[in-house]
Amino acid sequence: ACQVEKSSWSLGEANSRLSYYDGLIQLTYSNGSKYNNKEHTLRSTIISFLCDPEAGAGRPEFQVEDNYTYNFRWYTSYACPPRPHECLVTDPETLDQYDLSSLSRSTSGSNWQTMDLSDTLNLKKYYINICRPINAVPGCDRHASVCQMKYISDQGSPKEVVSVSNMGISKR
């Protein structure tokens, strides 16, 4: 992190060591530029990540500088705990309810997969999960419930690459 006005200051050295305490995720950068005080105190930064399910990636917001530390808060959906996954569907006409939770794959399982073979020169593969995001697939959006892959030729062999990273998000 750095501050730029008439001159610039390092607000701390980057690191990726997150801390978690009582539901709060924080990232601390330390050993920044020295203050012009008698002790030549090194600047530091604390970024507090807060859950906002609608924020997407969000962005940092400066809060205050106190005790030689720059404080930021960052509202983001990435700081939200996994939500419970009820998977009940109601027929709007008959009001019959259907529980599809047994089709939902947990985070420890694999996704449902299916191939579109309708165009043999343009094969597509779909990763699907029911009522929750798909389990991690490289290149697919972490919130997606469906992700489309295509195949390209890589040194004569087919290689799976993302075609559409997010084809839909499950809503309750």
UniProtKB/TrEMBL annotation:
Superkingdom in the source lineage: Eukaryota
Keywords, ordered alphabetically: Disulfide bond, Membrane, Receptor, Signal, Transmembrane, Transmembrane helix, Transport
GO process annotations (BP): lysosomal transport
Keyword Transport (UniProt): yes
Subcellular locations according to the entry: Endomembrane system
Pfam hit, one: CIMR
UniProt-recorded name of the protein: Insulin-like growth factor 2 receptor
Protein source organism: Paralichthys olivaceus (Bastard halibut)
Lineage: Eukaryota, Metazoa, Chordata, Craniata, Vertebrata
Gene giving rise to this polypeptide: IGF2R
